[in-house]
Amino acid sequence: MFTSLKRIFKFGWQGFLRHKGLSSQVIFIMTVAVLVVISLFLFQGLSEFLIAEAQKKVDISVYFKKDTSENNILEVKQGLYKFSTAIEDIRYVSRVQAQEIFLQKHQDDPLYLQALEEVGENPFLASLNIRTKDPVFYAQISDYLVEGPFKNLVEKVSYYQNRKVIVRLFSIINNVKTAGIILSLILGILVILITFNTVKLTIFTSKDEISTMRLVGATNWFIRGPFLVQSIIYGILAVGIASLIFFASLNFLNSRLQTWLLDFNFLTFFQENFLSLLLIQFVFALGLGITSFLLAVRKYLKV
How far is CA 107 from CA 20, 44, 101, in A? Predict the structure, then answer.
């Protein structure tokens, strides 16, 4: 048994070295496939990060009439928490704080400051800034504020001005997830077809060797063994090359990508999930290679 395994590994290694051209092609295609898997994994992480960041920046504000007291506004705040468990945070902004925020924002713009001086009094309204765990709840909360028990205190709710942005964000979130799933399926099918056809070329170049083995009474598994060893070598090399390419690329491009992608750190994400990603790569590459080789050899042996 041990002698047979030793010969299988030996023949597999020799076959790998003997067919360098085809071996390089298979490794190249497998490397591309593994790169696609890594890209999809990182894209999923990026998508979740961008969606979370976008949701953080989307909120609504309810503005109260000038004569509304702070106690009444805080009562509304407590009422909102009781009304919906979907609320993540509510921030109270008084009229004075709203004016200070405006002055700080436009401190270098004399036109705005002059206009504020001409008004004379504080024109800003007190407000509650509301952020939920999911954008879908904003419509429900807005309707409650406009039509509920506190409607006499409310001057306006910003949701109706931001409704298109919020609805569009929610649509983009769903479309990105759907597109990612469809893209993964399409690429997976293409990779399997390309790798399977390339593997068959390797089998056909060993036609004479397989015929000789059959003539001397070699079992089907002994014939398949070297090709399985080659598939393992291809998978290991493909995973190693793909990981090195990605690691080098992220080291070079990470700072530039962070600027464009709201400080999402690809390199940190890659390092934190390296073991999981490595396992996924090996399962994908070895599974694809072994399955393709087994199917191709089995088909050839039936001829």
Answer: 69, 41, 10
Structural domain that includes position 266: 2-54+170-301
The end-to-end CA distance of the chain, in Å, is: 28
> Average of pLDDT values for 203-213?
66
Same domain, 85 and 207: no
Highest averaged pLDDT of the listed ranges 49-58, 181-190, 231-240 = 231-240
Q: What is the pLDDT of residue 281?
A: 83
Quick one: pLDDT band at residue 303, thresholds 50, 70, 90?
very low
For the ranges 179-183, 239-243, 250-254, the maximum mean pLDDT occurs at 239-243
Q: Indicate whether 49 and 80 sit together in one domain.
A: no
**Identity at 23, one-letter amino acid code:** S
